[in-house]
Amino acid sequence: MSAIPSWRAGFELEVILGDLGEPRFARELREHGPMDEASTAFCRAFATKLRERTGRAWSAPSRPPLRPGFYVVPEYGLDPLNWPEDRLAGVELLTPPLPLDDAETVRSELIDAIYEIDGGFNFLADEHTGDCGWHINIDAGDGYRLDPDRFIVGVDELLLLARNDRLFSRYTGLQRHAVGVALLRHLAHDPTGKFLLGTALGNLLDDRAGRGKGYAANFAKLRKGYVELRHFSAESFFNGPRLTEQLERIPAAFEVWPSHSHPFEQAFRRKFLLLSRWLARARDKLAWDLTQGLVAAEGLVHFAGEPLGHLMANGLIELNLFGHGEYEYVATIRDIVLSDIPEAIALLALDLAELHKLGIQQRASSNRPFQRAVLQLAGHLRKGPGLSSSAQLAELANAGKLRREMHPQFYANPET
Fold first, then answer.
1. 37, exposed or middle or buried, with CB in 10 Å at 0-12, 13-18, 19+?
2. Quick one: residue 223, left, alpha or beta (phi over 0 = left, psi -120 to 50 = alpha)?
3. Which residues contact 400 (CB under 8 A, 6 or more apart)?
4. What is the pTM of this model?
């Protein structure tokens, strides 16, 4: 592994555009309505306008591009059915990996160009732009390994998703959800976590890390040398602070050396020990049922004899916890199996407890015994030393300071 990272970022930005000020597209919108899929002609026209305003080689390939570049491509995931009358097509803008300062420059260019071409629609957060994402693909240069366990123990992913209003969506699962079931199962047989010392915890986390588009941190992309971060909204692209501020602790977490990782692993292990004991007390209060349906089985989870959430089972299970309103859910976990339900509920209880501890406004569960149990868990977390988000951030700063002090030659002259 190389001594110091050279961080780079590439963007995938989704936007919903109007007629680009061109009569042919205005006529298309008037006669046929919005495009289900942006046409090649539309993408090329937008790429031309971006090229004129930024001086960069924006293009619109008719086939998926084989190498990184500046591209405009159709975005299939945006539903045009309820768009305002002046919106014609959804596109995705792709950039190559660039040093972070250069990536910030490209971001500024795109902000100005999109406003000049299309006005302020994409700058305002509403029910339409809320579906638009900003994915950031990061790497740290040749030879620098991005270990999933460093991310999982060193990044407060819950806080990051909450700040971007991306919690519990279908494409932003927490890494903690991916590893948590196996970890809680382990602790049921190792109640003090003594077999998770040394390299054991890191090995478990690396093996069970979430790989796929269902996770906000998509570690499947490690095969291509980068991590895809799906925590960010398009609104944060247009209106948020600098890229380095938005990435916050993610690069710092990946940079933690094994010799400095103990405080992070210890805090993570203690948190799950608390959660394991919480689950041991709650397990007897849990019950669930499923009824076969035409497409998928459905059912309810109960806690202390009262409805807690809805189950949807079609091979894998999606669990949604009820809020107070009809069809209001307060937390979701996906891709579990029937035997995972108690552990999955514990993981959601941890999410809700930490949101409460962070002071983030979150709708409460309609199940009062469960809500009381969540608040008790939040109280235990608050008393635990080193378990806060601010304590984690302080440890990251300290690990960076120690790294610089131990090897000042690398940081004084990064090209060495």
1. middle
2. alpha
3. 252, 255
4. 0.93
CA 301, CA 307: separation in Å to the nearest integer? 6
Instruction: List the one residue out of 346, 354, 362 whose CA is nearest residue 391.
Output: 354
Written as one letter, the residue type at 39 is S
DSSP 8-state assignment for residue 286:
E
- As given in the structure block, the two tokens for residue 176 are 């903690």
Q: How far is CA 335 from CA 67, 203, 238, 339, 344, in A?
A: 32, 22, 32, 12, 10
C-alpha distances (whole Å) from 287 to each of 104, 283, 306, 351 are 50, 9, 10, 21
What b/e readout covers 331-350, taking b as 16+ CB neighbours within 10 angstroms? bbbbbbeeebbbbbbbbbbb
Q: Which residues pair with 92 in a beta bridge?
A: 14, 73
Contact 106, 61 (CB under 8 A): no
How are strands ordered across the β-sheet holding 306-314?
286-291, 297-303, 306-314, 316-322, 329-336
What's the helix, strand, coil split of the chain in %, to 5?
50, 20, 30
Judged by DSSP in three states, 336 sits in: strand
Give strand pairing partners of 229.
136, 217
pLDDT tens-place string over residues 272-322: 999 999 999 999 999 999 998 888 999 999 999 999 999 999 999 999 999
* Alpha-carbon gap, residue 57 to 36, rounded angstroms: 26
* pLDDT tens string 348-384: 999 999 999 998 877 889 999 999 999 999 999 999 8
Q: How far apart are CA 85 and CA 220, in angstroms?
A: 38
